[in-house]
């Protein structure tokens, strides 16, 4: 699929998602749990010490994942820190479960200044800053600590800076984590098992190309539409970190889980540049520090969730396939041409810089 075709495809998907979002109050997610969570979120928004009517600034902050996810806990932490530090002069309204739109729509809202904060995975950010695509290279990072070291170093900073041209300010890296595969069709242990599997991917070219190379049928889709797509059998499977698979109740519509660990997904805490630039200096510092501090908490909670939830998933009746390092190596070999091709597109100097940063981080953490 060429680039132009891909962009047109995702744009129309985004339009469809937009129309669906206007069409009704109902949230994607497909289970009754989501409705309860929406209610408790609106309660949280009014039921705090502070209120938006007393505030000079209101931050509307939205994420794609639900209120059970550590991403939302991190967002609530951000809210608490900011409201306390400004004695309620900045008020933070929190939304989850794609209530304000999917990652891409929320980023567009930040550009327009109609929403202040969102925390997408880096994969959809590539539609705004292409270089973020380097993190979509399968099997790039050996572990999450190395990943964070690189993100918090020069490479990560450089990419945050590039967001400014897109009317967004990147305040911190949070963590989604290593992505794994779930599906409703078969146990997946080796590269061959991907053959013919219809897998929802994020709206990202490398993910599309890599899954095609493995013999799967990748279908790009916004996260908010995923549960229903799995329920209706539009897709056999999807890939996301374990915390998401469990906390979004994907086990209700998926029978198999494989710890492929194929891509590490960072989250980026984004603020509308228009809004950020309009804040007094001391408030700019407060929101920037709060994004960092809440991020440290989010990362801790996220790692704990990803480490703990396997047994719970199995208890829900999902069959666990353990993927060996050997099988991962085979997958890595198959997708190497995709990586080479995209490395060329992104500029080999830049990609080499990232590889060097990874080596340095590995050495420093040993
Ligand atoms: C949440 C997304 C999501 C991501 C995806 O908004 O789309 O699969 O992993 O969790 O950022």
UniProtKB/TrEMBL annotation:
Region Disordered, residue ranges: 24-53
A Pfam cross-reference name: DctP
Biological process (GO), any one: transmembrane transport
This protein's UniProt keywords: Receptor, Signal, Transport
One GO cellular component term: outer membrane-bounded periplasmic space
UniProt KW Amino-acid biosynthesis keyword: no
Transport recorded as keyword: yes
Acidic residues bias locations: 24-47
UniProt xrefs under CDD domains: PBP2_TRAP_YiaO_like
Family (UniProt): Belongs to the bacterial solute-binding protein 7 family.
Name used for this protein in its record: Tripartite ATP-independent transporter DctP family solute receptor
Species this protein is from: Texcoconibacillus texcoconensis
Organism phylogeny: Bacteria, Bacillati, Bacillota, Bacilli, Bacillales
């Amino acid at each position: 699929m060429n680039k132009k075709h891909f962009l047109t495809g995702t744009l129309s998907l985004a339009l469809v998602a937009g129309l669906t979002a206007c069409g009704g109050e109902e949230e994607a997610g497909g289970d009754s749990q989501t409705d309860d969570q929406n209610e408790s979120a609106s309660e949280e928004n009014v039921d705090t010490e502070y209120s938006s009517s007393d505030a000079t600034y209101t931050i509307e902050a939205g994420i794609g994942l639900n209120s059970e996810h550590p991403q939302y806990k991190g967002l609530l932490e951000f809210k608490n820190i900011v409201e306390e530090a400004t004695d309620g002069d900045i008020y933070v309204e929190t939304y989850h479960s794609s209530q304000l739109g999917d990652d891409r729509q929320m980023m567009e809202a930040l550009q327009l200044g109609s929403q202040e904060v969102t925390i997408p995975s880096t994969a959809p950010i590539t539609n705004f800053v292409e270089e973020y695509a380097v993190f979509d290279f399968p099997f790039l990072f050996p572990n999450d600590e190395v990943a964070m070291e690189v993100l918090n170093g020069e490479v990560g900073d450089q990419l945050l800076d590039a967001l400014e041209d897109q009317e967004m300010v990147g305040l911190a890296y949070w963590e989604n984590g290593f992505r794994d595969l779930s599906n409703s069709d078969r146990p997946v242990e080796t590269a061959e098992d991907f053959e013919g599997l219809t897998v929802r991917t994020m709206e990202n070219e490398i993910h599309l190309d890599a899954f095609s190379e493995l013999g799967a049928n990748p279908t790009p889709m916004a996260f908010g539409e995923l549960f229903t797509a799995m329920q209706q059998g539009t897709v056999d499977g999807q890939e996301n970190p374990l915390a998401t698979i469990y906390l979004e109740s994907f086990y209700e519509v998926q029978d198999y889980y494989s710890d492929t660990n194929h891509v590490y997904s960072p989250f980026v805490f984004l603020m509308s540049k228009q809004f950020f630039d309009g804040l007094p200096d001391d408030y700019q510092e407060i929101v920037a520090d709060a994004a960092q501090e809440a991020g440290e908490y989010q990362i801790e909670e996220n790692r704990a969730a990803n480490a703990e939830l396997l047994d719970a998933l199995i208890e829900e009746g999902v069959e666990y396939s353990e993927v060996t390092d050997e099988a991962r190596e085979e997958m890595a070999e198959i997708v190497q041409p995709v990586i080479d091709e995209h490395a060329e597109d992104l500029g080999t100097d830049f990609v080499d810089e990232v590889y060097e940063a990874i080596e340095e981080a590995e050495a420093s953490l040993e």
